[in-house]
Amino acid sequence: MNTPIIRIDRVSLEYQTERGAPPALILKDISLEIAENEIVALLGPSGCGKSTLIRLMAGLLSPTRGTVSFRGKPVEGVCPGVAMVFQNFALFPWLTVEGNVLAPLEQAGLPAGETSERVQHALGMVGLTGYEGVFPRELSGGMKQRVGIARALAVKPEVLCMDEPFSALDVLTAESLRNELGHLCADPANPLRTMVSVTHNIEEAVYLARRIIVLAAHPGRIALDIPNPLPYPRQPGTPAFEEVVEKIHDILTTHELPEAEPSASALEPLPTATIGEVLGLLALCEETPREIFDLGDDLNKPFDQILQAVRAAELLGLVHTPHDHVALTKDGSRLQSSTLHEKKAFLAERIARLPLFQFLLDKLAPGKKLDVAALKALLASAIPGRDPLEAAHTLISWGRYAGLLAWDSKKEVLSLPAKAP
Amino acid sequence: MSPAPEKNRTLLADALVICVLGALLYAILNVAKEWQAPFVADTHIELSLSKLPEYALYSLARGWAAMGLSLLFSIGYATWAYYDARARAVLVPLLDILQSIPVLGFMPGLVLALVMVFPSTKFGLELACVLMIFTAQVWNMVFSYYDSLKAIPVELRDLGNLCGYGPVRRFLKIELPFAAQGLIYNGMVSMAGGWFFLTINEAFTLGNKNFQLPGIGSYMSQAIAQGNAGAQVAAVVAMGVMILAVDRLIWWPLVIWSRKFKVEDTASGPRESTAVGRMLARSHAGDFLGAIPTHVASGLRRILPPPGKPGSHPAPLPQIPPGLAYGAVLVVIFAVGGFGLFQLGLMVLRLPAGEWAGILIDAGATFLRVLAALAISSLWTIPVGVWIGLNPKVGRALQPVIQFAASFPAPMLYPLVFGLVLAAGGSLQWGAVILMMLGAQWYILFNVAAGAQAIPSDMVACADIFRFRGLARWRKFLLPAVFPSLVTGWITSAGGAWNASIVSEYLEQGGKLFTATGLGATISEATAAGDFNKLAASVVVMAACVVAINRTFWKSLQRLGDRYCRFGG
Known about the structure:
The complex is a heterodimer of chains A (421) and B (569). Chain A has 15 helices and 16 strands.
């Protein structure tokens, strides 16, 4: 039964951020097959290119290298047989609910009798019967996404692609809509069997998918490809369910936060967290070690943002992460109980030791100045594949905090500070 | 690139900045001399190329004088409208009408009055010209400043009150910085709009009198009157160079600089920069210039009363003193305004009934021309605008070209374009439509491009996924998606086209006078003949037409677009 519908063969995607700069590598060397009847979740932190990957599958983007094929034929332009549900619904505000579901069917040139039957059926499946004449602006977010799902189902696609379909919704609405989609997947009356969904929510992936593909960022690549054999309907909170969630947590953490000391030799880009966030993290983990995923839940922040702060703290030797817990190191505890002045001095010394800062400080003799272009060129060569402007922002903000760098935002030049801090 | 030869660069930068300052000083002195020259009604305009830079300088000085006036007026008018609820009820709707009036119609009266007030120098005529340019610049700046005042966050105002800021400090520290971005951007647009009628503002005929001022506009008029094609081309090139120079050397640096006032901008780090900004940053002279605001500020601090103690009772808003004084001011304004309105009414009524029929027919003809100009413009501007908006790279590449084309005063190109129309066997009856388009089409292009750029990328992906192609893509997706911006573009274009009818329906070409049936031609003819009653009547009818169409037709289209075609609603 498993002839692949979509086949992605050694695909890379580069994106030119600005003229002259080396292109940023968004996806690197991805190979993937989606078979008939598979329900796949693409899971990963933001910036890992998961939305880009699903757009490649749908033929909305074409790869820089490699091929995407649909049922054995290379995809040129938009892929036939694919429908999509969008994060921000993408409903036409000038059409009613019925009009929105109907428009793609008319484009497909179906006879009038069949279109109206399909519209009614699709609206019925998502519980929107009776809302035909309503305009999208009169609907809540959850209802709008139901229209988006009905529109995609009505065209009877061979593959349904969903790009973070619940992340623009509030928690409760997302939960209930996810539930309904789960039932829809299990419903024998629904002819749709193949689905690819993008998410950054582990529970969502475990709830919906039979196969979970975890992507890693910078550049986007496949880190893991694991089956999820739990039987439908799945029950979040049950031991079996939590076990799978736990397992993915573990794998993600060991993958994203290797137990070994961060390497001191290579020039690693700084995590995109502010020093303020690092200090906040220390305060949160002061009493007891905290589980990294709980932190995300407590703070209601995306997982990858927490991860950036944890990485930054680890890079500075303030926390360590035994398993997936965040615990303060001796230095971390000492820092927590020191005065503001001491904190600053200590962090300055730690930041100065980072290889990237050493590299930069070498280039900055006293009295010498780097302008924006020079700084960007330097960073582009030191940490290739990263957006040099983004790297510069973090670098300047840390360096300023530590009193290691002076940034003149009027003249836009970087230099050593006039006096030692 | 290595930033090594720091010192050389500074010297070079210094030399450059000092040269520019010197040139500026010389220019100001020169202009002052010209303005004090004795008044001669019929100034001779020389068509030699060597005179052209000097003429360009005079025109530029008028443009900037008008810009300064526009700035002061905008701040004054908008502040009054914002802080005085009673006045606001009149001032804001009045603005809507003022910007619809074809100001060119008031030029004769203005010139005569000012020449009478300053009979011995050219100052009166210069002032009239500056005021005419001013009326083409000022309205969107007033709107911009008023909108900025309304948009100042309550927290910022609270902070000002807590610090005990008086009206002056509040203006300098809160209102002006907050409004700077919008004001500068609109100033740039206004400057371009101000040049539109330059050929007439600097050289116009009233009855049998010629009023001329040295400038690029009058140079062009003279070249047209003499049928000197070479001089016409020279004037067009000079105008182009002037616009480009002002844009690149003054407006762009200002626009970039003003981004530091962006309120939500909290990030510090590399930003966009301009050549002029970098040059100033590198030079000592730049440091000196940069220090001027600090000196001014410390001077002001000495003059102004100290702010109230922090936390003390907030200073009351500067209400214009209630009661008698306020009433007196209002009475004077209403008296003057009412008298003017009454006189205007008398003039209009003095027009024989027979002439009215003619004016109404003319209005109809111009209305049809405006519609035709919009329709033909839309044919190319909508597809191109959408293409530009959906392809940011194309947009970035074309932006300077389009901006230049749009800032160029279209009437300077009329001789060339109408020459082509004549050569193709056309008449001004139809040709005027093309001439009106020359200036008006850009507003549609800009607005459609901006609208297309704002279409969420998910919507575009959605239209791709569900295979909206060809005509259906336009009908069902793109047109509705840009509709609200399209309407805005149409409104602005229509206003521009009505205004342009005054110069495009009445044209001198190669010593011959061409006219087309229309309200614009009637206004120009009445001006040339010195027939003030007819002039007043036709100006009033044109203003009424524009306001009425805005209030009914365009407003309802706008409402439709806002209701059904806004994303994320």
